[in-house]
Amino acid sequence: xxxxxxxxxxxxxxxxxxxxxxQIDRWILEVLRHRRAGLGPALDDxxxxxRRKLVVAFRRDSFxxxxxxxxxxxxxxxxxxxxxxxxxxxxxxxxxxxxxxxPSPIPSPESSLELEERRKLVLRVMDLxxxxxxxxxxxxxxxxxxxxxxxxxxxxxEGSVKVQALRCRRKALEILRRLVTSDGAVRQ
Length: 188
Known about the structure:
mainly alpha, Rna Polymerase Sigma Factor, Chain: A, Arc Repressor Mutant, subunit A, 68% helix
């Protein structure tokens, strides 16, 4: 059974309370910023994936308190780090040309800014989507529910859920196209 402090921190994290999110992030980054992690520009993406997995786990009450919450978060971060290294090592690396052509592991300010702009754009698209689409995407992406479980939950057939998901993707793409001009600038 998780102690009261851990339960409060988990609830704060799930509800987006700044201090709770900062604490969980500190624990995640303790693992990801280790000198041997070698994530470079992938650090933010891996950290975001860990946050997503923690949200899913915390919503399912997977944290039982057998270890400290910090240890639980560290283990989640370590598993994600291992998964990231496996995924990167399974891709062939092409080192043609000179050493100057190899990208730097340190993200440039421009790439960080671009990543932040993409995140804002995705949030804007989600805000403009209908509630049904946002709810369906939450079940598919954040809760990682299979179509069959979603269909049972919504009282629909699995095929109709898949069709609805496809329609929601198309609506999101339409919204994205309306928001982004032909020259790549984002409309407000």
